[in-house]
Every structure is written in structure tokens, then in C-alpha cells.
Design a protein that fits this description.
mainly alpha, 74 residues, elongated
Amino acid sequence: PCYISRLFKQNLGCTISEYLTQVRIENAKTMLKSSQYTITQVAEESGFEDPTYFARVFKKIEGITPSRYRQYTL
């Protein structure tokens, strides 16, 4: 596991956890562009069990909350 983690970081410049989080946030951004999903549904479908944690991570990465992101993209 340590060797794979090291190779991953050397080749992609981020840890496996950081990469997974980025993929989840990109998925969430796609879903947020559609108004048919609630923020809670977006969080769950993106792999976050806690919508509050999802909002915190989303804001840390994107600089705005998921609901604000939705307002700007709709």
C-alpha cells in the first residue's frame, strides 16, 4: 500500500484520497448543474455520507458553497 501510494503521488502530484475527493467534487458539480437533485442527494450520490461535510469540502475546494455554485450555473 505504501509503495502504490508513493507511486500515485509521484505520477499525479496528489494523494489517492485527494484524487478521490477531487473526482467526487467534479461529479457533484455536474449534478449541481441540474435542479432535479437536492444538495443532500448530490452529496450522497457523490460519495459523501454527511451533507454538512460535503458542503465544507466543496467550499474548501471550489471557494463557494454548493448552493451558491448552483445559483451561478443555473
